[in-house]
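so my prof wants the structure for this chain in the tokens format not the other one, which i didnt know existed until like an hour ago. anyway here's the sequence
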Amino acid sequence: MIRKFAKAVAVTAVVVASVATIANVQPAQAGNAGAAAVGGFVAGAFVGSVLSQPRYTAPAPVYIAPAPRYRHRPEPWTRAWYRYCSAKYRSFNPNTGYFVAYSGNHRFCR
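here's what i got, hopefully its the right format
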């Protein structure tokens, strides 16, 4: 923000100098008055654009990583495995470790 203010002050000084030049125009130097007026207009447009900029900065986006997903399956033939497969598949056979899929095929519970 200080840099923008310093630019605005410098440009304002240039505008004041060009206006002072226009005010002290002698009849022999009347050809330079148009160039000074154009320069003053350009400097004023620049100062206006600098001063009209927003005076805030948007905060940087913060990335929040999603929670890790664990796909834990118990080891076969443990109590946890029997509970898992019995709860997941209604056709689970605990003696063989297989269940009947919708296709009719027997599949081992993993």
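also thought this was worth mentioning. The mean pLDDT is 77.
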